[in-house]
Design a protein that fits this description.
CATH architecture of one domain in chain B: Up-down Bundle
CATH class of one domain in chain B: Mainly Alpha
Largest sheet of chain C: 2 strands, antiparallel
Chains: A mainly alpha (about 325), B mainly alpha (about 230), C alpha+beta (about 50)
Largest sheet of chain B: none
CATH topology of one domain in chain B: Cytochrome Bc1 Complex, Chain C
CATH superfamily of one domain in chain B: Cytochrome Bc1 Complex, Chain C
Shape of chain B: globular
Distance between the termini of chain B: 18 Å
Number of helices of chain B: 9
Strand content of chain C: 15-25%
Number of strands of chain C: 2
Strand order of the largest sheet of chain C: 1-2
Oligomer: heterotrimer
Radius of gyration of chain B: 22 Å
Helix content of chain C: 25-40%
Number of strands of chain B: 1
Structural class of chain C: alpha+beta
Helix content of chain B: 55-70%
Order of helices and strands of chain B: HHHEHHHHHH
Largest interface: A-B, 114 and 111 residues
Order of helices and strands of chain C: EEH
Radius of gyration of chain C: 21 Å
Distance between the termini of chain C: 56 Å
């Protein structure tokens, strides 16, 4: 069939035409759907679970907060060794065979965990706090090996930390150097709300990029536990779910389904796909499926299924009945 | 495509440039092409083939109707700023209208897709209509995604920190930073709605200019085999 | 309404009740659309009406 000018007279030859008011149909549909939407909006409202803040995190779970802050400073957190686009680490780089687009993409949201999440905010908060100033000085002038030794010991100790009556985090005594002071000040800054502001604004006034605060939150366990309660995690079909008793993104069912089944969940691989590169693999699978959907008209079998499963006989049953009663003259070839 | 279109001349005498100088040139060519492809009688027809008498045909227009309210409520939300709906009951109401009209949009989009699939609506030269429709679906999914990211509540925080891993794995994490509220806001409020609207307009033009596809197996005067699916 | 929704679990499938209801309504709408009578224009005379 030639594209371009469509000869409707020829195409509709022999077809019964009926009067049809398209604009009235549009108007009825518009009013109708508005009524439905208004009823739902008034009756059910919409979801709005308030955001987590660094402050609420530090108050609700100070041990998790300090554990995370220590890991950032030690370079052992997920973000510290993530890889592009944040840094040149390898901990979260996903590859599939020879495909390594994450590395090819490069570092464009430069993030140094120890500096961006801990040292810089503490340095900005140090004026007037001589203990903090001294602790920072001690830490910054120590050798890398010394820093690592302090942090590793402190990291082991905080795994058994207790929460004091004043909300502070208490660990067994040990040789941690200036780290306890740094962590104590991090917790104080966090509980006051100052760390939220410091992570967001850095040293400029206006800011709309929440990368630092969100990455720091993500490294902790607190926000993940809240998400688990709402069934929003990846292994709970979370991508299609919503907070509260609301429908989510049902159209993402197929995207999130892969995350629930092997090999995307397994440690061992299949066709190079495992839990380690599930994100990249799912993107690849969905890209292929999306292309298949776009090109259905030219793909054999996919484009023939509607003939094989004749739901169309229901869509056009009045038309087919009419043709049976009044068959048209044979088409000239 | 141009050679095909040009080989099927529209009815009536072709303008003779020698006789009417204003009928030559780009403007005349575009106007003639538009009049061929989508005259007003086809854009706003008053007759349709009788076989559209099925409720399955209503899904597309209901989808458009839902989109109207998505945009209207979105405009109101944008006007008053991203924090408004958290602190104002009226704001929350408009957010609810936006939320439910988006749900309606996707419900009827998918129903429309089902209807077109089972009716093989891509036949008889309508393949690109189907393709544009699927692209609308995919772009709408991304548009909705940016919308969820700018809610500025727990849901948007969680979606951002999870989606980042998927997007980072593709190498696009530096270009499309889901943690960057400012970027996602501009994409959602302006760039993607423009894209969706343009695609929907194109889709409607395609449907109106080509007409509604005939039923499967309906004998066509010009078909080479009765109702061949192509 | 901000309390977590009830979830249904069959094998590897885990779906929220609101989502299940929504999908159920969609399937229902499609089936109804297939079978519900559509207000039709009575045939005026004869059958084919080439216009």
């Amino acid at each position: 069939m030639k594209r371009g000018h469509v000869d409707k007279e020829a195409y509709y030859k022999g077809v019964r035409m009926i009067p049809y008011d398209l604009l009235k149909e549009l108007a009825i549909a518009t009013i109708g759907i508005l009524v439905v939407v208004l009823v739902l909006a008034v009756a059910l409202s919409s979801p709005d679970v308030p955001s987590v803040t660094i402050q609420s995190w530090a108050k609700a779970d100070p041990v998790d907060f300090v554990t995370t802050a220590q890991a950032e400073l030690a370079g052992t957190s997920d973000v510290a060794d993530y890889g592009p686009p944040y840094n040149n680490g390898t901990g979260s780089v996903q590859t599939w065979g020879f495909l390594n687009p994450q590395t090819w993409g490069g570092v464009h949201v430069p993030t140094n965990a120890a500096n961006d999440f801990v040292l810089q905010p503490l340095t900005q908060a140090a004026p007037g706090d001589s203990d903090l100033t001294a602790a920072l000085q001690t830490f910054n002038t120590a050798s890398t090996d010394q820093q690592t030794a302090w942090l590793t010991k402190y990291g082991d100790a905080v795994a058994n930390a207790t929460v004091g009556s004043d909300g502070s985090v208490d660990v067994a005594s040990g040789d941690y150097g200036p780290v306890p002071v740094l962590m104590d000040r991090m917790l104080t800054l966090a509980r006051s709300g100052a760390l939220d502001a410091l992570l967001l604004t850095s040293d400029h006034f206006y800011q709309t990029d929440f990368s630092r605060a969100l990455l720091f939150l993500d490294d902790g366990g607190y926000i993940g536990n809240l998400a688990q309660d709402q069934s929003l995690t990846g292994s709970q079909w979370g991508m299609m779910n919503e907070t509260g008793r609301y429908p989510g993104q049902a159209w993402l069912w197929l995207y999130t389904m892969w995350y629930q089944i092997p090999p995307f969940t397994s440690d061992s691989g299949f066709l190079g796909i495992s839990g380690a590169n599930a994100d990249l693999a799912v993107v690849g699978v969905m890209l292929v499926l999306s292309l298949l959907l776009v090109f259905v008209p030219v793909i054999p079998v996919l484009r023939d299924i509607p003939r094989w499963i004749p739901i169309h006989r229901l869509i056009w049953r009045r038309h087919y009945a009419e043709i049976r009663k009044h068959p048209r003259p044979a088409a000239p070839s | 495509m141009t050679s095909d279109a040009m080989s099927e001349s529209p009815p009536g005498p072709r303008p003779d440039p020698a006789k009417a100088p204003d009928e030559a040139g780009w403007t005349a060519a575009v106007r003639n092409r538009v009049e061929q492809t989508l005259p007003l009688t086809e854009l706003l027809p008053t007759k349709q083939p009788a076989y559209i008498g099925s409720w399955v045909y209503s899904f597309g227009v209901i989808c458009i109707a839902a989109l109207v309210w998505v945009v209207v409520s979105g405009v109101v939300l944008a006007f008053f700023g991203s924090a408004w709906w958290h602190i104002s009951a009226v704001g929350h109401f408009f957010n609810s209208v936006h939320f439910w009209s988006v749900q309606m949009f996707f419900i009827f989009l998918v129903l429309h897709l089902w209807g077109q699939y089972w009716g093989a609506g891509w036949r008889d030269g309508r393949a690109t209509t189907w393709m544009v429709g699927v692209v609308i679906f995919l772009v709408s999914v991304v548009t909705a995604f940016t919308g969820y990211l700018i809610q500025q509540n727990f849901d948007s925080q969680w979606i951002a920190i999870n989606a980042k891993d998927g997007i980072n794995s593709t190498g696009l994490g530096g270009l499309f930073n889901v943690l960057n509220f400012g970027q996602q806001y501009g994409l959602h409020v302006m760039l993607f709605p423009i894209a969706v609207t343009l695609l929907v307009v194109l889709h409607i033009i395609q449907v109106r200019s080509r007409g509604v596809v005939r039923p499967i197996d309906d004998p066509m005067p010009a078909s080479d085999s009765a109702g061949a699916l192509r | 309404m901000n309390e977590p929704a009830p979830y249904l679990h069959w094998g590897f499938i885990l779906i929220s009740l609101p989502n299940l209801v929504l999908i159920g309504v969609m399937v229902l709408l499609f089936i109804v659309a297939l079978f519900a009578p559509f207000p039709g224009h009575k045939r005026i005379s004869g059958h084919t009406d080439d216009e």
